[in-house]
Amino acid sequence: MTKKHVSFAATKTVAEFHIAHNPTTVPHVGPSVGLVGPPICISSVPILDEDEVVATQGKKRRALYMEPVRRVVMLRRQGYSMEDIGRICIQADYVKQCRKETALAYLVEKRLLVESKSTDLHVKPNTPGVLV
After folding, report:
1. DSSP-based three-state secondary structure for 62
2. Domain total for the chain?
3. Mean pLDDT by 10 residues, the chain (132 residues)
4. Distance in angstroms (rounded) separating the CA atoms of residues 109 and 124
């Protein structure tokens, strides 16, 4: 009998992008910014050992978040006017509202479907599991 083993690559591929206005990103507050365009740099880097990965977990989370004020400043530096940024925020709020309404409609539809199925099933008394 032969032993089987799994091995993984010792490197990972990292793609870097520009950050700018991206209407597909919808933040909780402020203008929507995200990755834009093709990658500006693609590189292979060695995978860190587990101790280093655990130590950098919190840093990655914080590095991905950009405060709303920083997003506004970034967009201003890219040439957006405050009116444009205001429209971007209104558009993001509209998208959030539409997503909430869609999710609510889906939940209501699922609940009605479950209720209609449960009222269609009647069980004979004293006979568990037998449907009429």
Report:
1. helix
2. 1
3. 78 91 86 92 84 59 80 95 95 93 94 80 56 50
4. 29
Identify the pLDDT of residue 98: 94
Return d(Cα 89, Cα 31) in angstroms, integer. Answer: 5
Rounded Cα–Cα distance for residues 65 and 58 (Å): 11
75: exposed, middle or buried (Cβ count in 10 Å: 0-12, 13-18, 19+): buried
Domain that holds residue 45: 11-120
Answer whether residue 46 is part of any domain. Answer: yes
Task: List the structure tokens of 15.
Answer: 């793609």
Q: Distance between CA 73 and CA 80 in Å, rounded?
A: 10
Q: Counting every residue, how long is the chain?
A: 132
Is pTM, for the whole model, over 0.85? no
